Amino acid sequence: MPFEDDLGAVMRRTGETFRPSDRPGLVDGGLIRGRHRLARRRAVAVTGSVLALTVVGVAGGYMTGALGSDGGQSSAAASAGPTAPASDSASAETGGVTEERMIETFKGLLPEGRTTREDGSGITKDPKGQLHGPYVHLVFDDGRGAAAMGLGVSVVDPAGESAADSVTCPSQALMQHDACNEETLSDGSRYMLFQGYEYPDRREDTKVWRATLVTSEGVKVDASEWNAPAEKGAQVSRPIPPLTATQMKALVTNEAWRTIGAQLGRPDGAAVNRVLASLLPGDLKIVDQQGEPGYGFVVADDGRGASFIQVNAQTGMGDLSQDVFAGDVTTLPDGTKVMVKKETDPDQKGGAGAVGWTVDTLRPDGFRVVMMAFNAPGQGQDASRAEPVLTIEQMRTIVLDEKWRTAAA
Q1: Among 102, 108, 147, 203, which is disulfide-ready with 136 (CB 3.0 to 4.6 Å)?
Q2: pLDDT in tens, 312-322
């Protein structure tokens, strides 16, 4: 799967192991704003009363390691471990998209040349039943020098911020590059070709060209090529990567990848900020918002000052029942645990006069929604009003709404 999606999964798994003692080192505030956040992902852990958010990247992590690392020997998705040969039933569940199919499809779209160090994965299914996108990585030599290449297929919300970020050229002020072009194709798909360097500071001469397509149905095809036999740590073998700009576009827009992407089902769930906005009282004015599946925030104002409200929606969190949900906890008739806290300096960032209210819920099936509302317009900022814009009862009603299941990570 593409680097940013795989990293997000790894960070989510890591985040689920955090406990309250980890809190001081984890608090990192809200999402960094701006288009240059092309590779941020967060750990969706909530430790104690603080929503912990890790932001990765800014510009440097965007173009690196998208489809493999470790000298070209493995893919970013390799953290999941080797994939065993699929049984007939498993193959049916994943649409018959195997490692072999990915490699052969990719090789069939390359010009004449020799391939080595072929690696990849078909569509895989995790223990929760979620499908993960396939990828392929290999070294290609057209007689002018060996070059690492790779391609991954995934699904995204085509109207979401993640999709927009992946086909938006970075600023030269943030990441030096030779060229970058964006376009909208006749079928509504968005396409970007980035031509830059593995290391934006140019400490090595390794070039990376990356072509990304996001279709109107949410299929994302992400291909990269280098002018060296590995992304990092290998001597440059040729002046530029092997495929031309025209060939890169033809590669990612090939219908074969859309067919494979269609096997992944629906894109990620709704962004949390949009669900949150739909559940807020109608008299509130939203002045800022941002989010993705699993995490989001809004800044709302009732005319008496702005209030920052953030939410995490997570599945598979049943193991927190004893560690986090202890003390003043109410258990509803259906078994849902509800914990309420009111704190000063709630994010431990020292905003003058800041208070925060938290309503944390855990369903019997491990589904967790936790909301935190501040009396300030953002984390670490001074109070803009006496109390958060929502009452505890309003927060409780919002976090218990079943809409959150459409936005969980």
Answers
A1: 102
A2: 999 888 888 77
